[in-house]
Amino acid sequence: MTVQCETFSFEVHAEDGMARAGEVETAHGRFQTPIFMPVGTKGTVKAMTPEDLTDQIGAQIILGNTYHLYLRPGLDIIRKHGGLHEFMNWDGPILTDSGGYQVFSLEDLRKIKEDGVEFQDHIEGSYHFFTPEKVIEIQEVLGSDIMMAFDECPALPCSDEYMRESLARTTRWETRCLEARTRTDCALFGILQGGTSPEFRRAHIEELCELPFDGFAIGGLSVGEAKDKMYETVELSTPLMPHDKPKYLMGVGKPDDLVECIARGVDMFDCVIPTRNARNGQCFTSQGVVKIRNAVYAEDMRPLDPNCECYTCQNYTRSYLRHLYKAQEILSARLCTLHNLHYFLELTRTARQAIVEGRFEAFRKEYYARKEHA
Predict the structure, then answer these.
(1) Which stretches within 181-289 are classed as H helix?
(2) Contact at 8 Å (CB) between 189 and 213?
(3) For this protein, what does the record note about how its cofactor is bound (predicted)?
(4) Does residue 101 have a known ligand-binding role?
(5) Among residues 128, 177, 119, 170, which one has the least CA distance to residue 148?
(6) CA distance to 25, 71, 267, per residue, from 7 (Å)
(7) Most buried residue, 2, 83, 213, 356, by CB count within 10 Å?
């Protein structure tokens, strides 16, 4: 008998083609879908305060990472604070990745066993062992509103034989995650694997979606495969996933990816691109990407994006932003991050409104037309 989450629900409000608009309820509040979730890997969305996230960009849910928070600051410190929400002073919903991707990316520092994965801390060198049970225990200490099951994300390409073994192991591990959870206020999502193979994807979806998860995530994409393969895999996957549960595409992506995958039925997204690229001076706008470090912007008196209402665009010129970046001022990261996150969240908000109004395809065409005529 597995524990069921009593504080989680999902409702689809509108559909337009495969695109859909919905609402998720969690122990720490609601969020509307489609949604982009800013990534706060180590208990902070880089360069942002919680007030920035709520007041300036309207973030409804953010991410934390099990692997990184387990290593630093460690569970004892987070327990003393009463959980991750209190630790980072964020009172909205939090989704935590299981750490599976981080562990499996440490190819030279880990060993896969039936019980779990032994790995070496990539900074201090100490050894640790993650089992499905341990991953759930960590996330319950964090107090995640949405926990992710522990899976294997196989490196691509791999042999068919290895993929079969990996998928079977992932199903066993994720079943153990369901059996391990004890809290009724932490939802648990399953992760679907299978690479870009239609055969393996169908098989794993059919197998895993029989289990009583609160939602499902498409994993194992945006790891170097061709863009058309990613879109084809998403388009194959979403109709096979339960209609009454959220559909989450992990680690994706760029603005075009959000638009295209919303069109293919995805409800939830996360990616480090808006925050990481902001620190590197790359800003996303309705007219395309602005590389603010370039000399062409030295005397450019325009805002980053004339169609944007964020704090950065309403108060600062491209010229000033370039100056901050070239001078390596901390304010550069803050202002560019604020803009990028605002842009991503506004993109999903306007997509949602278009779905509700039954004009998503028109929205999609307008999105590309703006970039073409920039």
Answers:
(1) 198-208, 227-237, 255-263, 273-279
(2) yes
(3) Binds 1 zinc ion per subunit.
(4) yes
(5) 177
(6) 7, 29, 19
(7) 213
At position 271, the amino acid (one-letter code) is C
Active-site choice (16, 97, 214, 257): 97
Choose the catalytic residue: 145, 214, 270, 305. 270
Instruction: Read off the pTM.
Output: 0.97
The 10s digit of each residue's pLDDT in 118-162 is 888 877 889 899 999 999 999 999 999 999 999 998 888 889 999
Sign of CA dihedral 201, 202, 203, 206: positive
Q: Is 58 annotated as a binding residue?
A: no
Q: Is 16 a catalytic residue?
A: no
193 is an annotated ligand-binding site residue: yes
Cis preceding linkage at 73, omega within 30: yes
Query: Which pLDDT score is estimated for 104?
Result: 65
Q: Could you give the CA distance from residue 143 to residue 274 in angstroms, rounded to a whole number?
A: 26
336 annotated as ligand-binding: no
- What integer pLDDT is reported at residue 335 of this predicted model? 98
Clarify whether 55 is annotated catalytic: no
- Give all domains of the chain, ordered by start, each with its CATH number: 9-270 (3.20.20.105), 272-373 (no CATH)
